[in-house]
C-alpha cells in the first residue's frame, strides 16, 4: 500500500494598505484564528500570533513603505503567518538598544514564533513565521525550527488573494 503524502491545508490571504493600518490586520487575523479549534484552548498562542502579525505588518509599512499582503496557512502541524512587501532587501534584526523606541519587531517575532525565515521574491520579499500549537509540543522534543525548501515559483506573492502552496514549507524538530 502506498503511503499518503498529501497535506491538508487551510489558508486565508488579505492585503493591508498602509492607510488601513496594523489594527485591521490584527482584527482580520483574530477572526480567522477563532475558526480554528486548537486556538480556543491556547490564548497565549493567539496573543503571540497577533503580536507577530502586528510587528510583521508594521515592518512592511514602515521599512518597506509598502502595502502588506498577509497570508495565513494551517497545515495541521504549524500555523504559517507570511507577510509580503515590495522591498527587495531582507530584514535585519537590530542590536538591542534600550534608548530607541523602535527596531524590535523581528526580535519580538523571533521570541514568540517557533521559527521564522525570509524568502526573496521577484517583487520584494516574504517573511514567514511558524507557530506550533501547544498540544503538538513535547518537553522531550525540544524546540521547533523551520526548514525551508526552495519555494515554487507559484509561491511568489503578487497581490491580495495570492496562495502560498504549503508543500513549499516544512517544520522539523530541532
From TrEMBL:
InterPro entries: Anti-sigma-factor_SerPK, HATPase_C_sf, HATPase_dom. It comes from Streptomyces fulvorobeus. This is Histidine kinase/HSP90-like ATPase domain-containing protein. The keyword Lipid biosynthesis does not apply. Keywords: Kinase, Serine/threonine-protein kinase, Transferase. Residues 23-130 form the Histidine kinase/HSP90-like ATPase domain. It holds the Pfam family HATPase_c_2. The keyword Zinc-finger does not apply. GO terms for molecular function: protein serine/threonine kinase activity.
